[in-house]
Design brief:
Homeobox protein cut-like
Length: about 400
DNA sequence: TGAAAGTCAATATC
DNA sequence: GATATTGACTTTCA
């Protein structure tokens, strides 16, 4: 499938075309059309399951494509948004899959990743900002939860219907196969395309690759060849591994920066692998990534990380998880969240966030809402606030200097 | 053109 | 069953 152009101009052949179509096509009442877009299960050839890439229309802003909205969007607080989304989904027992496929046009894995490790707004490309704009709009939609609930009900209904019909057709091979996912090696006779088996790297291989990365994050083709032959892997696998690892390390560092800046952010709920306890002893927690601190260290932005790295365990951040309360209504976002519509009559994405325009494009744009106003844990919050202020000050100083080498950390 | 960004989808884990 | 992880791939960007 073709991918969305990141161009600011509307891309007619966008893969998320349904979104644009729907937005563009919503001449009248967007919300009404949105509800009407909740297709009955019978309309869905997949049996009622929505598909990634076909998010619901965006509420409001009719006539604007999602790309235009993204391009026009002020800086959003991706952490606050994902936090709120997670909260709303959890509170309402809504799954990532449904949310991703319905609202964002993304698969479950992508949603999980996005929610757990959002990148700061200024680090995102236009395309990367799109899901956050969608999330923000979704949060601002007073009926967002109901609509998703409706979808959930419809899916369940469709599922039951399929179950019933497959049960009644239980003697029919087709009926049984209809609900079967073909996995490699078990394709139906007609499906000849054998899927490539997924490569799963063993702990030793990963360890070796990590060591190699520590020595050389950008290995030469020769080194890659050597690694591949030593580990008995394809060179493409090694190349991919380095690409992925660099990319994920980078993202971890964004998160660590945010965490260092006062413990706000997704990692506060254990999101960052590099800060999570090691699950499998495979060592993504304290090993590989800590060395990344020595690998280019993202221009030395490891300020304030010593504590986290040193402790190398979950942080005492549970207080944060309740920051902002557990208001079930997404329409009532934290008023301090950049992009929230509090007191603005629900004017939506573009009526908000003058704050963001005044804020520098920096990951330090920590929402004031981060630290909760809950009277509990005051000491903790005070400490965090002090730490935060200190770090923000230093980051702002740093941001004013082009050359990272001049940064004073 | 190579690296980064973004995403999918298989698989692992909870 | 839901969520997290990760190898592979495509698209974007400098």
């Amino acid at each position: 499938t073709p991918k969305t152009s990141a161009s600011c101009s509307p891309a007619p052949e966008s893969p998320l075309s349904s979104a644009e179509e729907s937005v563009n096509g919503l001449a009248g009442d967007p919300l009404a059309s949105q509800s009407s877009s909740l297709k009955p299960p019978s309309d869905d050839p997949s049996g009622g399951e929505s598909q990634p890439g076909t998010p619901l229309p965006l509420p409001g802003h009719s006539g604007l494509s999602i790309q235009e909205m993204v391009a026009m969007s002020p800086e959003l607080d991706t952490y606050a948004i994902t936090k709120k989304v997670k909260e709303v989904l959890t509170d309402n027992n809504l799954g990532q899959r449904l949310f991703g496929e319905t609202i964002l046009g993304l698969t479950q894995g992508s949603v999980s990743d996005l929610l757990a490790r959002p990148k700061p707004w200024h680090k995102l490309s236009l395309k990367g900002r799109e899901p956050f704009v969608r999330m923000q709009l979704w949060l601002q939609d007073p009926h967002s939860v109901e609509k998703l609930m409706d979808m959930k009900r419809l899916e369940k209904k469709a599922y039951m219907k399929r179950r019933l019909s497959s049960l009644s057709d239980s003697h029919s091979v087709d009926g049984v196969l209809a609900g079967t996912d073909y996995v490699q090696g078990s394709q139906s006779p007609g499906q000849q395309q054998l899927k490539k088996p997924r490569v799963v790297l063993g702990p030793e291989e990963k360890e070796a690759l990590k060591k190699a990365y520590q020595q050389k994050p950008y290995p030469s083709p020769k080194t890659i060849e050597e690694l591949a032959s030593q580990l008995n892997l394809k060179t493409s696998t090694v190349i991919n591994w380095f690409h992925n690892y660099r990319s994920r390390i980078r993202r971890e560092l964004f998160i660590e920066e945010i965490q260092a800046a006062g413990g706000v952010g997704p990692g506060s709920e254990g999101g960052s692998p590099s800060l999570r306890g090691s699950k499998s002893g495979e060592g993504d927690s304290c090993d590989g990534t800590e060395s990344e601190g020595t690998v280019e260290t993202r221009q030395g932005l490891s300020i304030g990380l010593e504590d986290h790295r040193g402790a190398c365990k979950d942080h005492d951040m549970e207080a944060e998880s309740e920051a902002g309360g557990s208001n079930n209504s997404p329409a009532q976002l934290d008023c301090t969240m950049p992009g929230s519509s509090c007191g603005q009559g629900g004017l939506g994405l573009f009526s908000l966030t003058e704050a963001s325009s005044s804020s520098s494009a920096s990951s330090t744009n920590i929402p004031a809402s981060g630290p909760a106003r809950n009277p509990r844990d005051n000491n903790l919050r005070k400490k965090k606030a002090a730490n935060l202020n200190n770090i923000i000050h230093r980051l702002e100083k740093a941001a004013s200097k082009e050359d990272p080498s001049e940064w004073e950390f």
